[in-house]
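Here is one such protein, fold included:

. . .
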Amino acid sequence: MKILITGANGQLGRDCTEILSARHQLSCCDVPNIDITDPDQVARVFTTCAPDVVINCAAYTAVDACETDLERCMAVNATGPELLARQCAAHGARLVQISTDYVFDGNRPAPEYYTEADTPNPLSMYGRSKQAGDEAVQAYADNFLILRTAWLYGIGNRNFLKTMLRLALADPERTIRVVNDQHGSLTWSWRLARQIERLLDSDLRGIVHATAEGHSTWYEGARFFLDAMGVPYSMEPCTTADYPTPAHRPANSILE
């Protein structure tokens, strides 16, 4: 199977590249090799690579920056998926679009969860842009799989757990304050890439939730991780109100 991975230098993109390369012929693209917001570049890579499957890991994921960098946010997260969807339809390719838990408003009390059938209602510009991308995929791709995931972490690139480890190692006596009223599922990017590999062998279409089992708050997840690492640390819980950010985040984004 010929697979095009966009956003191949990102956390999930790297894991998909490593896992899928054993069985498939890959074309792995990222900026500057391809800008998914450029129609000519997207058309050119389809002509050159002729993929059977496209896995779109490219995204603008700086949630707070999205609140002010609106044009770039919408271009990458909404226009890019639309261009890929149109080309996939034109070339008979399957599109796997990576989406997010942030398409939901989080008003449902934890530990209740959101299903694929629930109506999105994003709170942030990031969530709105990703939802717009998902809608474009549904409108223009003939064969698509939208995977909503959440709270990704992994060995490569920056992520929440690596930040916690860095802070703890830098100064074990300095108290780290971590939000304890946002609920979700920390998800290992490597395991998600393995799940994508299995899904490529299926005919599954539509929207699928793809997160790790269980759920926690950011605070609970950080404590569990640092305890497992055997790292000394000082940590205390705080509320979302104690740690204001430009973008609103859902209080509960647990996905079934």
About this structure: The helical segments are 11-20, 39-49, 70-91, 125-140, 160-170, 189-200, 218-229. The first strand starts at residue 2 and ends at 6.
